[in-house]
């Protein structure tokens, strides 16, 4: 049984000029102990999907459909006070850009202790002990407790945020762009930390990134998102070795390989669509090098290619054969 099973999830933003379908009928599964990566270009709905899981979508956004089963309980059916018992305790999140949102006038100790006291029935002394232990578990010395955010490097701040997210021993950790703005060495260290936490704590992780090469290093499964939809889902090797969706292929080819012969970078032409006026048919068709006639008219449905390989593309619905 999956730990988290999302089906038909729809989260829309109702803005003056129309409706942004930021998460548009998403199905996704996270198994226990697994690390799932979500990749896609900016604006494709990754953060909205993550915030929807914790029901942290604020107006003008609204979850308008679907189910989010956590161990068979639909999170969308819970009362707010029941949902509060899920946040931090069962599912915790390191938010996108949170590194820059640490309170500059409070020490790391104050901020972690506050998170612990707010969510667990701990005295301040117990919380301080726990804060030191949490910092150790993310590879930071307890002296960091006395530091203010500006005294820490980006990598240290990100570790402190991960420690904070672990304060209630959650079963799922969602990390939204945890390595953006970090240098490559620090990026690798943060990714290894997530991998270690996954192994040591049996933690299930969802990592969001626009950078597929980052996800390749730690994920078991990868979901590729485009214009609010999951266009491909498979284990990490399948995604890299035999990607099915032309968008996945384009994303992979957009990253340089340090080893091997030098070849020109392939740049994905065009931009992601305006989410208010999505084109008819497959939203990727205006940029797709393999688009068929049907792609401009009919929205493709997700099809299963292999045991754990799904793709949302007409090339795999038997249409390619018919049109050629
Ligand atoms: N509070 C909001 N109000 C209105 N529209 C929003 C809001 N938050 C996000 N959106 C829109 O929803 C769409 C998805 O945004 P989201 O932040 O989920 O994308 P993302 O994939 O996380 O992007 P990035 O990689 O830049 O973080 C975008 O078109 C964005 O403009
Ligand atoms: Mg985002």
Describe what is shown at a glance:
This protein has helices spanning 46-53, 80-86, 108-119, 124-137, 154-165, 184-201, 212-218, 236-241, 246-253, 319-323; strands at residues 4-15, 18-30, 35-39, 61-70, 73-74, 91-94, 172-176, 204-209, 221-226, 229-235, 302-306, 309-312. With 324 residues, it is α/β, with parallel strands linked by helices.
The CATH homologous superfamily of the largest domain: P-loop containing nucleotide triphosphate hydrolases
- CATH class category label of the largest domain: Alpha Beta
Taken in chain order, the helices and strands follow as EEEHEEHEHHHEHEHEEHHEEH
Second-tier CATH architecture of the largest domain: 3-Layer(aba) Sandwich
**Sequence stretches where pLDDT stays below 50 over 5 or more residues:** none
Give the percentage of residues in beta strands. Answer: 15-25%
Q: Estimate percent helicity.
A: 25-40%
> What Rg do the Cα atoms give?
21 Å
| Small-molecule binders | adenosine-5'-triphosphate, magnesium ion
SSE layout and pairing:
Layout: E1 4-15, E2 18-30, E3 35-39, H1 46-53, E4 61-70, E5 73-74, H2 80-86, E6 91-94, H3 108-119, H4 124-137, H5 154-165, E7 172-176, H6 184-201, E8 204-209, H7 212-218, E9 221-226, E10 229-235, H8 236-241, H9 246-253, E11 302-306, E12 309-312, H10 319-323
Parallel strand pairs: 3-8, 3-9, 6-7, 7-8
Antiparallel strand pairs: 1-2, 1-4, 4-5, 9-10, 10-12, 11-12
The chain binds adenosine-5'-triphosphate and magnesium ion.
Residues 46-47, 96, 176 line the site of magnesium ion.
């Amino acid at each position: 049984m999956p730990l988290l099973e999302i089906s038909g999830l729809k989260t829309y933003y109702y803005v003056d000029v129309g409706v942004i379908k930021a998460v548009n009928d998403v199905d996704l599964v996270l198994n226990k102990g697994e690390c799932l990566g979500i990749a896609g270009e900016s604006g494709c709905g990754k953060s909205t999907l993550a915030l929807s899981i914790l029901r942290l979508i604020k107006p003008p956004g609204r979850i308008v459909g679907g189910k989010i089963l956590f161990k068979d309980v639909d999170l969308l059916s819970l009362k707010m006070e029941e949902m509060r018992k899920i946040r931090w305790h069962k599912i915790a999140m390191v938010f996108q850009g949170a590194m820059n949102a640490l309170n500059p006038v409070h020490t790391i100790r104050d901020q972690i202790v506050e998170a612990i006291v707010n969510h667990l029935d701990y005295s301040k002394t117990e919380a301080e002990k726990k804060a030191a232990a949490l910092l150790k578990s993310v590879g930071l010395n307890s002296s960091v407790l006395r530091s203010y955010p500006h005294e820490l490097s980006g990598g240290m701040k990100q570790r402190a945020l991960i420690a904070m997210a672990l304060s209630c021993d959650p079963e799922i950790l969602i990390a939204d762009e945890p390595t953006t703005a970090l240098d490559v060495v620090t990026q690798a260290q943060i990714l290894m930390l997530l991998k270690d936490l996954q192994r040591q704590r049996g933690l299930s992780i969802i990592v969001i990134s626009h950078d597929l090469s980052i996800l390749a290093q730690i994920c078991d499964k990868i979901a590729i998102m485009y214009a609010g939809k999951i266009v491909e889902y498979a284990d990490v090797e399948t995604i890299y070795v035999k990607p099915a969706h032309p968008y996945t292929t384009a994303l992979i080819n957009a990253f340089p390989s340090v080893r091997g012969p030098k070849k020109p970078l392939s740049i994905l032409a065009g931009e992601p669509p305006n989410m208010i006026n999505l084109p008819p048919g497959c939203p990727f068709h205006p940029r797709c090098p393999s688009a068929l006639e049907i792609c401009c008219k009919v929205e493709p449905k997700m099809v299963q290619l292999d045991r754990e390989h799904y793709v949302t593309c007409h090339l795999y619905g038997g249409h390619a054969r018919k049109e050629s």
